[in-house]
Design goal:
Order of helices and strands: EEEEEEEHEEEEEEEEEEEEEEEEEEEEEE
Structural class: mainly beta
Helix content: under 10%
Radius of gyration: 21 Å
Number of strands: 29
Shape: globular
Strand content: 35-45%
Low-confidence stretches: 1-21, 350-358
Mean pLDDT: 82
């Protein structure tokens, strides 16, 4: 479903959308490692490699896995962190030395990450995910590993709380109820999404041709997870009792990570995966935001250059807005040989400048440090829904206003880390206004 994006005010960086989300209409290839094999898009390194053409591949085997985008140093642009098959069991940091609108990734030492390693004496395989799981304004780290420090493969989810800050992280191993000894996969990958729409992050594990669902039964600030099996797992219609009963009919997600985006812009989270053969595909959520249903897990093609891009063995994909246009871009990783590439998300509908300004809604102050005020004229706050999310698509605020007499909504942003956010306001007429908000 294609939607038109109407650009209203460059000065306010404001967009009016009829779509539910900012997932692109198409993806255009931008850059790849110069030593990558021919992938059938354009010759390496691409028109805008953003440092990936000369990126250091730091492992002896060259086997990298699951790059993810995260602003780890709080400078308002997206860095990249990659897992690997490495003897020291590390994650590898690629700092974005460019800008919020022009990325350039350079492999760099990162003390907080360098201190996190699970090295049981042989090659370990690691995949990291960053999420503010305790709602304190900084990114915590979840590490999925093939083996733990004792070479056991059933203890595959590890949590490191960020006891530092949004600009200077410090990761300390900690515990969260429900993640110990889960044995989700031989080569596990993790994703986080509010799958049941209760305003906290649930965990989804993937790998070994199965998908696990760990529901967050705690709160946004005090999480605890409970693994849901079989009929309680949206991806498993098996009524048996075995924890490791496989539930993925395609047989091609031995090593990958799950991503959740609203690809078809119908208001719920679809699933996107890179397959073992190197192709990226998505599965539609035919259910609702509170009761997901992925049907028969039928694969659908990604748009644009991602439709035919063969990324090699055990491909992974991650999303974030790396060029500051409000549209999601994609970073991909290949396991063997290890290399990275990125694709720009593009809206194909032409942008048109409107002469009239937005008079129904004002948002101030912007930039903001503590309280953001959304002012509605003529009490149009009635039946409006508001959400605020990071440049990587993580929701940090939601509110549904119904039959309220107030003409304004105040949002406390004092606990958010500094950086760029998007505020999405949907009125009862079906239109959605998205504004860029800078939090100081």
């Amino acid at each position: 479903m294609k939607q038109k994006l109407l650009f209203l005010s460059c000065a306010l960086c404001t967009y009016v959308l009829t779509a539910q989300d900012v997932f692109p209409d198409t993806f255009e290839f931008r850059g790849i490692n110069s030593n990558a094999p021919d992938v059938g898009v354009v010759p390496a390194p691409g028109p805008n490699p953003a440092g990936l053409d000369i990126a250091v591949l730091p492992t002896l085997t060259g086997r990298l896995s699951a790059p993810v985008l995260v602003d780890l140093d709080g400078d308002n642009d997206l860095d990249m962190v990659s897992g690997a098959q490495a003897a020291d069991g590390k994650l590898f940091y690629y700092e974005n030395t460019g800008s919020p609108t022009a990325p350039n990734w350079v492999q760099t030492a990162q003390p907080a990450l360098d201190a996190v390693a699970i090295a049981p004496g042989g090659n370990n395989e690691t995949k990291g995910q960053f999420i503010d799981i305790d709602d304190d304004g900084d990114f915590d780290l979840f590490l999925a590993t093939k083996n733990d420090i004792n070479q056991f493969n059933f203890n595959d989810i590890h949590y490191y709380e960020n006891t530092g800050s949004a600009t200077a992280p410090n990761f300390v191993e900690a515990t969260i109820p429900g993640i110990l000894n889960q044995n989700i996969a031989n080569f596990p990958g993790l994703g986080f999404v509010d799958l049941d729409n209760d305003n906290d992050y649930d965990m989804v594990g993937i790998g070994s041709d199965s998908i696990s669902y760990l529901e967050n039964t705690g709160t946004k600030m005090i999480p605890m997870f409970e693994r849901r099996l079989h009929l309680d797992n949206p991806w498993d219609m098996n009524t048996g009792t075995g924890v490791l009963d496989r539930n993925w009919p395609h047989g091609d997600i031995l090593v990958t990570v799950p991503n959740f985006q609203d690809v078809d812009r119908d208001g719920d989270f679809d699933l996107i995966v890179g397959t073992d053969t190197g192709i990226v595909r998505w599965v539609e959520n035919i259910g609702t935001p509170t009761a997901p249903d992925y049907g028969t897990y039928a694969y659908q093609n990604m748009p644009g250059d991602l439709e035919t891009f063969d990324f090699g063995q055990f491909a992974t994909i991650s999303f974030g807005d790396v060029n500051g246009d409000g549209v999601l871009d994609a970073i991909l990783g290949s396991f063997s040989p290890g290399y990275f590439a990125w694709f720009e998300g593009v809206l194909t509908a032409p942008l048109s400048v409107e002469e009239e300004s937005i008079t129904e809604i004002t948002v101030s102050p912007n930039p903001v440090a503590d309280i953001l005020t959304v002012q509605f004229q003529n009490n149009k706050v009635n039946n409006a829904s508001l959400s605020m999310y990071t440049i990587t698509g993580q929701v940090v605020y939601t509110s549904n206003q119904q039959n309220q007499n107030d003409s304004a909504v105040q949002i406390d942003v004092s606990n958010l880390k500094s950086g760029l956010y998007f505020l999405k306001i949907k009125n009862d007429d079906g239109k959605t206004i998205v504004k860029k908000i800078t939090v100081n």
